[in-house]
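[Help] Beginner question about ligand-bound structures

Sorry if this is basic. My supervisor gave me a protein sequence and a SMILES string for pyridoxal-5'-phosphate and asked me to "get the holo structure". I don't really know what that means in practice or what format the answer should be in. Inputs are pasted below exactly as I got them.
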Amino acid sequence: MVYHSTRGQTPPHTFSQAVEAGLAPDGGLFLPERLPDITPLLPQWAGLSYAELAAEFFTLFASEVSREEWHALTAQAYSKFAHPDTAPLVRFTPQTYVLELFHGPTLAFKDFALQLLGLLYKRQVAQTGRKLAVLGATSGDTGSAAIHGCLGQEGIVIFILYPNGRVAPLQERQMACSGADNVFAIPVPGTFDDAQRVVKETFGDTAFTREVNLSAVNSINIARVLAQCVYYISGWLRLPAEAREKGVEFVVPTGNFGNVLAGWLAAKMGLPGVSFRVATNQNDILHRFFSTGIYEQGEVHPSHAPSMDIQAASNFERYLWFLLGGDTPKVRSVMTEMKSTGRADLRANMAADFRSTRMDDDTIQRVIVQAWQDWQYVLDPHTACAFTAMSPEKTSVVLATASPAKFPEVVARATGSEPTHPTLEALKALPLRRWPLTADVEVVKEFIRAHL
Ligand SMILES: *Cc1c(COP(=O)(O)O)cnc(C)c1O
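Answer (accepted):
No worries, everyone starts somewhere. Holo just means with the ligand present. The predicted complex, written as structure tokens, is below.
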């Protein structure tokens, strides 16, 4: 299997090369040359553990990694998840289920991809003998999940920039209390966009990226998307046959479009009878797009579900490639138009692939109250965005993307008591280790050089 760029101006990459590059050199995103048909494999996958299923799935996408090695990698990646099912499926009614994706080390779904990506980086270091510097910017969850994926890995040093005072206190602790010598949590003044700009400018200096062997940790890496396909398959396999026969709608809290895109790709690979609903908060670029066919960026308004406060979904380009029938010049022209005008009219190309809904902050609060009253179940604010408007005919599977304990203030306002989690409680006693820097690319480069 080789990987092509959505913009069509990058030579084919192997899986390992595509993972290492992250973004394609032509500015596009990598996609596999074809999607394998998994339908005939589903019966034999039904009895596998989560890690075994992940290994068998990845064997279809990266032949340069042996099946044996995949099994070792996924066994290790999912060993730190606290639940025996890794991604347990909780039944509310015969027609309504929640797929809990928050039992990993940082209590959000991003651990599914980043625990594995950390091990893929380690494998690369072992093969090349070169130390790797990993750099990223975060508004919270990605940074902590990335840090915990690289924690203590020999040959890897990770640098995460975040806006000072603008990530949740517990998210900051998850980044800055790891105690590991290869982790640098770096608060910078300004907003997430300022942190992101410094990271982008650092990657713009290719001499520097080569000098320190710099790799980007962000949501567009193809390994992350593929790792996320697995829990859709696992969730589907765990449903009773009667529930599957009705057809299954996965309802997915969405920001960068990475999570729900993975499910949609699994459907294109032959996961039978599944459909999707995109659930956004008040930052509703994707809801507006699926309702109107016009993709138009707006301003970001901070919400109760901060990990979805996004108005430009970085994984959207992969879906766009499919919408435009793989016409790479057209992808390029739409992306250029989007970049210059913040808008693209795709009404002529729309397909009925996704339903969508949007939820404002007041409704998030009300939904958390309602779920608590009806089910004694505590939703986090991101999951709450999805916990509504269930399909009357189909079986609904809501993806729970974070533990409510990560967002205690919002949840306590709704339920009357602060949710806690032992992992987070333990963090409160640990010293914060932060390396504050100015939001200046030269300062950041010097810091990376000095700490490799
Ligand atoms: C990142 C994140 C999301 C959004 O996922 P995307 O892949 O960006 O759509 C939703 N919920 C939580 C808790 C997250 O951390």
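A couple of things worth pointing out: Residues 216 and 305 are 25 Å apart (CA to CA). DSSP finds 20 helices and 14 strands in the chain. Feel free to follow up in the thread.
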